[in-house]
Amino acid sequence: MADITESRIAAQSTAHPAKRIKWEAVGDHAILIAGALLMLVPVYMIFASSSWNDITLHREGLQFGFSDDMANNYNAALFEYGGFTDSVNGVTMLANSLILGIGFAIGKIIVGMMAAYAIVYFRLRFATLAFWMIFTTLLLPLEVRILPSYEVITWMNLGNTYTGLIVPLIASATATFFFRQFFMSVPEELIEAARIDGAGPVKFFIDILVPLSQTMIAAMFIIMFVFGWNQYLWPTLITTDESLFTLVRGIRQIMQAYSDGSTTPEYGEAAALAIIAMTPPVLVVVFFQSWFVKGLTESDK
Amino acid sequence: MKRAAFGQIGFPILLLIPQLVIIAIFFYWPAGYAIQSSFYLQDPFGFGSTYVGVDNYTRLTTSRTYLSSFWFTVIFTTLVTFFSLAIALLLAVKADKVIRGAKTYRTLLMWVYAIAPPVAGLMGVMLFDQSRGNITQLLSTFGYDYRLGVNYWDTAAAMITVSIWKQIPVNFIFFLSGLQAIPRSVREAAMIDNASGTSRFWDITFPLLAPTGFFLLIINITYALFDTFGIVDTIVKGEPGNNPMTLVYRVFVDGFRGGDLGGSSAQSVVLMVLVLILTVVQFRFLERRIHYT
Amino acid sequence: MAKVKLDGVRKVYPNGVEAVEPCHVDIPDGELVVLVGPSGCGKSTLLRMVAGLEEITDGTLHIGDTVMNDVEPANRNIAMVFQNYALYPHMTVAKNMGYGLKNRGLPKTEIAQKVAEAAKMLNLEDYLNRRPSQLSGGQRQRVAMGRAIVRSPELFLFDEPLSNLDAKLRNQMRIEIRALQQRLGVTAMYVTHDQVEAMTLADRIIVLNAGRIEQIGTPAEIYSQPASTFVASFMGAPPMNIFTGTSDGQQATLDGGLSLNGAGAPSQTGKIQIGIRPEDVALDPSGPLPFEVDIVEELGAHRLLHGQLSGQPFSVSLNKDEPASTGPTKIALKPGAVHFFDAEAGRRL
User: CA-CA to B222 of 20 to 30 Å: which in B201, C33, C287, C315?
Assistant: First the structure.
């Protein structure tokens, strides 16, 4: 079969010398397919393995084929209560992840848009100072100041609360910066026309600027949702109460069980949980790809 | 600021208050607190602290474990940055070139962006597991005895591989959009001037992509320094032991496991300075970048 | 409808740059005044101060009988058409036109009626439910005009409204704007850098340069009596030839030795500048002035001869039926062709 194809291509290439270029395209596709497989195969293996029982996985590692324990594993991952206090299951963690992802995205967008609006559209001497104060927060990721942040949260009694989980993550100015960049690119004349049309600050914001920013808001929402959903270190520190665990935070629990080695670890359930933890953000990114890419690549300009 | 900006004062301040309050409480306060505690030594039982000057810093320069983490971080960052950039660039150039299936490739190469680092780490643990990991088994057929969590460099290799894998999509997206931003006319002019695709890439495309590349370099260094926390933590299974450790992970381990607030804070401050330097570099570059466009 | 009066209006930016020097302008009711000048001359700043989009540093601005210095743009009863149209991209044509009226609290039926009237006037009736992105450049321009009309303002402000259109559409819209303004009888201020637009549209022209008013006058005055070398070379295409020369009080002589017999001379003696419009010259083999033609440019209706007069560059514009060729020839000046300016400031003598 391969021989036939090749000889046909060879025949064509003698007939039309220009067809040679096609080999280059074949090479390009081969590289791209290899890249796509590199991305795909590990995740596929986890997915396939989530259909196997723990003993096989324990003996043979991750699987390429499918078995019939899928329902079992996902059922256990989603509905079986686990942890030290038996107070958390997959559904609870899924809900917490959603609350973190959506709460973080919405909070960040609202706070960021408001601040960016004030900085760009008002003749405020204090705005430059505010901008620099906000901009500085881009410099130091939460990971750098993790311990003092934790102390502050404990001091404020916000440990094991959604507020303590979400609000400190908002304390970086990515969204503010993003909206500032976007507002600056909005033509000057729009605010001028609106002012002649009798729109004040509130009306201009609601009637003109927010509708204009729709795409930007969507892009930001996707990026921030994924970012919030995937948070690990902060939830690990701030939530010791298992009923507040997110899926990603739950991964840590699995890993600890994994290293105990006392009983056969629940590999199938772990694989199922990993799949559950990655599915929502992956779907969001794939389905809203163009917004996502736009948001990501335009935030740096 | 816009030419015809509004003149009100109270309203914009009202708009700024939420952002400013949040960063004051959750950014400036902790950052200041970190700087302050880096000059104090905490009593292990939580009874007060003593001012020790720069002792916490000098302790770092002599600590063997800290220095080994430092050098590991340098190697880790270099390798992760180089390989994730190189692979992503290759893929982006090809994806930009192919006519058929370009969109499908884009999707297939970027979706891993959405996977959380610890989830990627979990996959790494399963693939590299000492006894049953598929990659471990593959390596043993070549006669290599791979031992995750036991052999320092074996563990490091797993961390690096997973970190590269996780970062390729972001780099790919930026390189691809950078390539697509190169004007058609420039490409066409190059096609007329130069027949060789390879030298066209190095003479024309690569320099035009340099701004994107430099921006990504900073992004990748930041990623390798901070965002790989989840990967490192899952691969060492939360039990650092003698495993390789990045600087950020050590801040966490010394601060939360070791209860050494002063030492951990000093490490935080060192990292802050590092990031600050990176930012200054980026800023100087960004200014230049304006001239590019 | 209203007259407009600028009394010593001036603009200084916080960084100390004086964008507009104190200026005095009176615009009678119903007049269309064009502000023209090169980019950065302050013409837009002046217009924006009238609109209230830019604060007035000094002086007073009257629209009608009211001092408007500190009145919000929306309350000045003006309408403005912007260079890039500044249409709200997410609103339909009808919503775009009606937004100002809605903010004034007019009832919906009245807004709809006014929008319909304006749309009819501008041939936009079929497009009322479209978004700006679905319109052509000329149509967007009309919507911007419509937005201005529905407000029934006392004063129209135009900020280079035609410069984003192609040449053909520009000519057409120019005529439409003029017709509309005359029909509505609304006072208008119009900013452009295009001197043809200025000449054809204006009742009166204000020529600005480097933040200063160089001249105010009707298009004919500006053309035939330019107040300075700047106005002389800015207004008119091809521009006026400007020579350096001297005057002894009776006769002017170009540097290079050629005397302009019978063209008169300013009373000021010494160094001067001498201007001659390219179209104020006739080829005349028996004429007094030798002209060396280097290049002949064909423009269809006209023909431009470029060459040397008394060793200085000189251009002549001829009708298409007059024969022309390169090489030496002679020219004669039409009566009143020669303008005199002082050597330093370039003011008319």
Answer: B201
Interface residue A176 vs chain B (CB under 8 A) = yes
Instruction: Pick from B1, B2, B3 the residue to mutate for testing the C interface (most C CBs within 10 Å).
Output: B3
Flag residues of chain B having pLDDT under 70: 1, 43-47, 238, 285-293
Q: What does the longest C-alpha to C-alpha distance in chain A come to?
A: 80
Domain total of chain A: 1
Residue contact C72–A214, C-beta within 8 A: no
Domain residues for the domain of B254 are: 56-289
Closest CA to B263 of B70, B28, B72, B58: B58
Please check whether residue A66 lies inside any domain of the structure: no
Q: How far is CA B32 from the centre of its chain?
A: 24
**Structural domains present in chain C:** 4-229 (3.40.50.300), 238-342 (2.40.50.140)
pLDDT at A35: 94
**B30 in any annotated domain:** no
Residue given tokens 């006014």 in the structure block = C114
Q: Provide, as residue numbers in chain B, all residues whose Cβ is less than 8 Å from the Cβ of C48.
A: 3-4
Residue B46: predicted pLDDT: 61
Whether residue A51 lies inside any domain: the answer is: no
Spatial distance between the Cα atoms of B71 and B246, rounded to a whole number of angstroms: 9
A249: containing domain: 90-297
Is there a domain that residue A49 lies in?
Answer: no
* Residues A193-233 pLDDT 10s: 999 998 889 999 999 999 999 999 999 999 999 999 999 98
pLDDT at B288: 55
Q: C22 preceded by cis ω (within 30°)?
A: no
From chain A, the residues in CB contact with B5 under 8 A are 120-123, 191
Calculate Rg over the CA atoms of chain B: 24
Give a yes or no: residue B24 inside a domain: no
Q: pLDDT tens digits, residue range C49-73?
A: 999 988 899 999 999 999 999 888 8
Which residues 224-263 of chain A have a CB within 8 Å of chain B?
226, 229-230, 232-233, 237, 248, 251-252, 254-256, 258-259
Nearest to C164 by CA among C188, C187, C125, C193: C193
- Asked whether the predicted pLDDT for residue A282 surpasses 70, the reply is yes
In a domain, residue A115? The reply is yes
**pLDDT, tens digit, for every residue of C255-299?**
888 888 777 788 888 899 999 999 999 888 888 889 999 999 998
B114/A35 touch (CB, cutoff 8 Å), yes or no? no
Q: How far is B185 from chain A (nearest CA, A)?
A: 22
Question: B181 vs chain A: nearest CA distance in angstroms?
Answer: 11
Which residue among A192, A199, A208 sits closest to C82, beta carbon to beta carbon? Answer: A192
What CATH number does residue B201 fall under? 1.10.3720.10
Identify the CATH number of the domain in which residue A151 sits: 1.10.3720.10
Q: Mean per-residue pLDDT for C187-209?
A: 93
